């Protein structure tokens, strides 16, 4: 049954009389304590009434205290219990400052006196009553003078006495009040005095506590040991000390921990867990100047306890290990010399736990890793004298400590009969990485031991992943030069190979190595294996030696990960690569050799091994030599890694500017982040790379034009990297030489026109390229030209642009995809080009036929995207006109029958919007200008264009619903279109409304609710074209967000019956509980619109896909008829085109656009080889002289319509409501 004092707040919730509320609650109770409580309350009310005092908590408190004080000698236990219970109900309700400090002190004396007498009597007080007194004392201390110890001493001492009471409820309540009292003290003197009382209690109990700590707890003896009350009080006392530690004064805190340390020994006792808890509280709250002197002692005792073996409970070993970590952290922060001195001691005892059960071993491993991570701060203090030697007297403290730590783990490794587990290997890994290069001096024996384990494991079934990573950390720390000094890779005279197992580890873990070492040591070693393979007659042995040679050559990628001597040795490396590239020895190797080199376990996407593997496959399948494919990959790596890792230091770019492959990152970041070069070193490296880039670029371009498409994608990246650091004039000469070679133009940059059939016959007789061959090669050269764009100067850009325009002029479709892509690259990389030739570029693009394949269309849109952004940011009339022409094409594409084309249009619209919003920190004008231009199509356009504009606004609102709030004309303008009778437009607007109500937050939707409901509901009576079902979906979303009562309040009377039907249908689909949950999810999701996995996104997608199936079937039948009738040569009329625009005016297209927008854009070159679809070229042409005349005048008007934004005002919804004629 709940105690009366626990319900005080509930009793006074309406501010009425306490006595009356007690009577209302307990009048029917037959419990004696309740009857006595009501009698006491009635008596107190009578006292107040007789003296005409208010029936308030302070008055009740004063009456009760006076009664207790005046009748303390005559009160029996029952009356005293009832009076104290009444006080515990009243006192918490007394407002602050309502009791003076003097009266509070007197009240404390009365309560202490009363409870003291009852404790000495035979019957005593009940637990609940004593708890009530303790609670009252805790509250009264808050009313006392918190800066006067005399006012507080009696109450605090009483709480301290009750805090070790045997009754759990009383004890816990007293301890809680004790903590609150400590926190309320406002004087250091008061705090010091209170702390001394705690210390005094501890000292009084210490003799018995020391006795208990010396008794070893064994099974069955614990209860006997704690059977005496005074023994239990020791435990309760330790609990009080634990909760008091955070509040103790500095001096007392030091004395307390000195006493606690006396209770700690190497054997487990009944006090061990409590002592550990006190020490933990001490570590967490005490200041460094207090803890450091005592921590050194505690470390020794904890190490002794952990090292005592399996005799102690597991949980105490875990606690001791955790305390050791915390102790060393304190020493590290306060006294580093003590930390380094104690580190071997702690590592030694924790290393013994690594072979324990999994939970303890895992904890010990984690603690050791954290402790050893601090060694990186000390390795810089070591000198040559600290290297291990026989003369230990010459070692510094740091050197001696590190030597001892390494020896501990060396001995721990020796205890394992097989492969060590992940726990000890993980710790050794951290030790390697934090010691760095000096680990060569201290951990040689560990490396040799790990190598022996690896040799034993090779050929077996054991999992060596952790062992490989541990050895790999040694490679990172020491470097390949020192590792290969300890573990040399060699070929003996009997053709046996030594330490070949090390090569895959080197490939994965070498970083910040020397290119010079690779050239001077690894290359000769690889050549020696190749030479030996030629001399061997046995095929199997020959193939093994050849595979080892290729593995050694394959170490180059790892040596290129932030090499330390790039600018000194990159020239020599380039010579080797070019030499091997030009040689054609070792041709026609079997594909089996390629597969033999890399085992499947190393083939992972995104890493060097995987790309390397791909190069092997390409090289062998395409009848190239294995070595040729190998060095083909080396060129790719040379540019991708060496160039970018230096360029990014000098001119950091966004993630998109980094190499496509994540190989470099995977190689380096498996264990640690590698610091980048300084700007000075990066400048030298780039200068050295530039000096040899010309020959490399020439070699790669020759490979590119002679390679098949599968290999060109890798070469493009490498060529682009090298071209970005090569002098633009050199790159231009290379490109012009290719133009001459393939007969596209002369050496002056002039391009030839397509000849007649007679010219083709002459070319054939003279052995020149045929037209088909030239067109194929044109695509290759155009693809190559796109790689030259990044580092190109103006003259090279002009040359590439001339080649682009020449391609558009002399070809119909061939090469257009590559030309569009190259043009978009120019516009992306060189902003000056789009601004200086804006009009010319617009006329060029809009004068071309619209592409018939999706790859070309996306590349075309990429160029239009940049030009559109430029136009919107300009304020000139000509730019505005051009921007409308671009927007014409996008909106018309939104109405295309081809789904991929519509996705491309939605994607480019979203990109334009995102680009404008990214620049909106300066001004929102361009973004609002785009919205205004789209809204301009709502006036005076054909229904076809008008519905396309609505679809465009739908997708923008789907991405950013706030535009409806920042531009309040949008929603009224679109709602006004519901007064038309054009089916296509009505569908589009209803689709917009559905997107709007799905995306807006509930609080924002309330602002538009009246207009939306009033304009949408009239269409609920129209069943044709599924208008009614669309309105139902919209209303369900609104009801879910805003609530049925709010929606009903803004619904016209004539539609109340329809709304009732919607309510019933909604409750029929889901239970009220589910509906409430849905509302909650929606409201919560509104606050996190940008989260990709939020409930709001799911809700919106669900809303987008709720179009009735029957409508889809109608559209499918219409598509079939259109396909059957082959009606691709004209733009559909309004009634026909709704099938392509989609139900709801583009809602499904909005949804698919978002999916497409989130997906990675397709590469223009690869997409150019996909299946092409038919499309009408005339529907998006302007009146440019190169565009064909449309066959339909109305379609021409659509294509060239430039709306007047000033007409928007007539689309605003006025106060007068219009009814729709049915």
TrEMBL record:
InterPro entries: ARM-like (IPR011989), ARM-type_fold (IPR016024), HEAT_RRP12 (IPR012978), HEAT_RRP12_N (IPR057860). Keywords: Membrane, Transmembrane, Transmembrane helix. Residues 5-290 form the RRP12 N-terminal HEAT domain. Residues 1183-1200 have a biased composition (Basic and acidic residues). The chain crosses the membrane at residues 612-638. It comes from the Eukaryota. Residues 1087-1222 are annotated as: Disordered. Residues 355-598 form the RRP12 HEAT domain. Residues 1208-1222 have a biased composition (Basic residues). PANTHER family: ARM REPEAT SUPERFAMILY PROTEIN (PTHR48412). Belongs to the RRP12 family. This is Ribosomal RNA-processing protein 12-like conserved domain-containing protein. It comes from Lithocarpus litseifolius.
């Amino acid at each position: 049954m709940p105690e009366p004092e626990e319900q005080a707040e509930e009793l006074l919730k309406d501010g009425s009389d306490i006595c009356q509320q007690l009577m209302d609650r307990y009048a029917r109770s037959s419990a004696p304590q309740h009857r006595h409580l009501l009698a006491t309350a009635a008596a107190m009310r009578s006292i107040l009434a007789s003296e005409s005092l208010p029936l308030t908590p302070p008055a009740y408190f004063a009456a009760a205290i006076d009664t207790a004080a005046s009748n303390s000698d005559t009160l029996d236990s029952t009356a005293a219990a009832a009076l104290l219970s009444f006080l515990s109900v009243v006192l918490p309700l007394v407002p602050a400052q309502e009791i003076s400090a003097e009266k509070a002190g007197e009240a404390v004396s009365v309560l202490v006196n009363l409870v003291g007498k009852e404790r000495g009597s035979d019957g005593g007080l009940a637990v609940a009553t004593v708890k009530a007194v303790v609670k009252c004392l805790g509250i009264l201390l808050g009313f006392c003078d918190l800066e006067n110890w005399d006012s507080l001493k009696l109450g605090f001492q009483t709480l301290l006495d009750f805090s070790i009471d045997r009754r759990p409820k009383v004890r816990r309540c007293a301890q809680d009040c004790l903590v609150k009292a400590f926190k309320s003290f406002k004087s250091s003197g008061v705090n010091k005095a209170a702390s001394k009382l705690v210390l005094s209690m501890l000292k009084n109990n210490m003799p018995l506590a020391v006795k208990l700590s010396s008794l070893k707890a064994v099974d069955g003896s614990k209860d006997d040991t704690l059977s005496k009350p005074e023994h239990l009080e020791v435990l309760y006392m330790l609990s009080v000390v634990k909760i008091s530690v955070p509040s103790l004064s500095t001096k007392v805190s030091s004395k307390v921990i000195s006493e606690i340390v006396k209770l700690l020994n190497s054997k487990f006792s009944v006090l061990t867990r409590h002592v550990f808890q006190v020490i933990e509280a001490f570590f967490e709250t005490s200041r460094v100047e207090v803890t450091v002197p005592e921590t050194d002692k505690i470390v020794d005792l904890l190490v002794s306890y952990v090292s005592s073996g399996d005799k102690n409970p597991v949980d105490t070993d875990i606690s001791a290990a955790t305390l050791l970590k915390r102790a060393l952290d304190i020493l590290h922060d306060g006294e580093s010399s003590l930390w380094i001195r104690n580190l071997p001691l702690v590592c030694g005892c924790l290393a013994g736990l690594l072979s324990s059960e999994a939970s303890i071993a895992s904890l010990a491993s984690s603690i050791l890793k954290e402790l050893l991570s601090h060694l990186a701060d000390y390795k810089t203090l070591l000198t040559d004298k600290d290297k291990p030697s026989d003369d230990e007297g010459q070692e510094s403290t740091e050197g001696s400590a590190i030597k001892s730590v390494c020896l501990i783990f060396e001995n721990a490794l020796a205890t394992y009969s097989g492969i060590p587990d992940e726990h000890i290997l993980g710790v050794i890994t951290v030790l390697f990485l934090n010691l760095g290069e000096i680990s060569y001096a201290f951990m040689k024996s560990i490396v040799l031991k790990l190598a022996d384990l690896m040799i034993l494991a090779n050929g077996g079934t054991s999992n060596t992943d952790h062992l490989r990573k541990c050895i790999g950390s040694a490679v990172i720390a020491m470097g390949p030069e020192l590792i290969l000094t300890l573990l040399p890779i060699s070929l003996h005279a009997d053709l046996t190979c030594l330490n070949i197992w090390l090569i895959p580890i080197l490939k994965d873990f070498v970083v910040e190595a020397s290119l010079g070492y690779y050239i001077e040591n690894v290359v000769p070693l690889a050549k020696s294996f190749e030479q030996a393979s030629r001399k061997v007659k046995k095929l199997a042995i020959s193939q093994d030696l050849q595979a080892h040679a290729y593995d050694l050559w394959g170490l180059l990628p790892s040596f290129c990960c932030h090499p330390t001597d790039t600018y000194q040795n990159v020239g020599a490396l380039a010579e080797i690569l070019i030499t091997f590239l030009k040689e054609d020895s070792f041709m026609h190797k079997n594909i089996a050799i390629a597969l033999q080199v890399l085992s499947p376990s190393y083939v992972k996407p995104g890493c060097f091994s995987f790309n390397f593997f791909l190069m092997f496959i390409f090289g062998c399948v395409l009848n190239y030599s294995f070595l040729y494919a190998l060095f083909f990959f080396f060129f790719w790596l040379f540019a991708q890694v060496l160039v970018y890792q230096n360029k990014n230091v000098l001119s950091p770019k966004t993630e998109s500017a980094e190499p496509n492959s994540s190989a470099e990152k995977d190689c380096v970041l498996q264990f640690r982040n590698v610091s980048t070069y300084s700007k000075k070193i990066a400048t030298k490296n780039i200068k050295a790379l530039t000096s040899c880039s010309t020959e490399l670029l020439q070699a790669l371009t020759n490979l590119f034009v002679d390679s098949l498409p599968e290999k060109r994608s890798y070469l493009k990246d490498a060529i682009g990297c090298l071209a970005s650091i090569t002098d633009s004039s050199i790159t231009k000469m290379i490109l012009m030489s290719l133009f001459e070679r393939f007969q596209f133009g002369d050496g002056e940059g002039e391009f030839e026109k397509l000849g007649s059939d007679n010219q083709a016959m002459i070319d054939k007789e003279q052995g020149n390229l045929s037209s088909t061959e030239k067109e194929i090669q044109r695509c290759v050269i155009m693809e190559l030209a796109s790689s030259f764009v990044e580092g190109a100067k103006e003259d090279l850009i002009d040359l590439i642009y001339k080649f682009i325009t020449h391609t558009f002029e002399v070809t119909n479709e061939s090469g257009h995809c590559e030309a569009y892509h190259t043009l978009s690259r120019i516009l992306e990389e060189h902003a000056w080009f789009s601004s200086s030739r804006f009009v010319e570029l617009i006329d060029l693009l809009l004068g071309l036929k619209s592409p018939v394949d999706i790859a070309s269309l996306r590349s075309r849109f990429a160029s239009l995207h940049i030009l559109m952004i430029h136009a919107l940011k300009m304020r000139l009339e000509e730019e505005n006109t051009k921007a409308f022409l671009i927007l014409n094409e996008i909106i018309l594409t939104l109405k295309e029958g081809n789904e991929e084309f519509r996705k491309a249009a939605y994607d480019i619209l979203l990109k334009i919007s995102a680009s404008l919003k990214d620049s909106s920190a300066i001004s929102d004008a361009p973004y609002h200008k785009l919205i205004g231009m789209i809204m301009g199509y709502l006036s005076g356009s054909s229904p076809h264009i008008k519905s396309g504009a609505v679809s465009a606004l739908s997708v923008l609102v789907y991405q950013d619903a706030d535009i409806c709030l920042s531009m309040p004309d949008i929603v009224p303008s679109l709602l006004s279109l519901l007064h038309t009778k054009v089916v296509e437009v009505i569908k589009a607007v209803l689709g917009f409304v559905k997107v709007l109500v799905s995306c807006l937050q509930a609080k924002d939707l309330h602002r538009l609710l009246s207009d939306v409901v009033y304009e949408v509901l009239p269409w609920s009576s129209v069943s044709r074209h599924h208008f009614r079902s669309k309105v139902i979906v919209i209303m369900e979303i609104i009801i879910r967000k805003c609530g049925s009562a709010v929606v009903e309040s803004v619904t016209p009377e004539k539609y109340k019956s329809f709304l009732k039907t919607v309510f019933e249908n909604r409750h029929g689909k889901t239970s009220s509980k589910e509906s409430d949950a849905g509302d909650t999810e929606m409201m919560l999701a509104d606050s996190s619109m940008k989260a990709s996995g939020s409930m709001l996104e799911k809700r919106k997608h669900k809303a987008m896909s709720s179009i009735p199936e029957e409508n889809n079937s109608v559209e499918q039948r219409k598509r079939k008829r259109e396909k059957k009738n082959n009606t691709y040569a004209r733009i559909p009329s309004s009634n026909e085109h709704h099938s392509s625009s989609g139900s709801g005016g583009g809602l499904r297209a909005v949804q698919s656009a978002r999916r497409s927008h989130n997906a990675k854009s397709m590469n223009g070159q690869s997409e150019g080889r996909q299946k092409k679809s038919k499309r009408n070229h005339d529907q998006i042409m302007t009146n440019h002289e190169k565009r064909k005349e449309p066959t339909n005048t109305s379609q021409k008007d659509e294509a060239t319509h430039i709306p007047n934004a000033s007409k928007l005002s007539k689309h605003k919804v006025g106060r007068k409501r219009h009814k729709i004629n049915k």
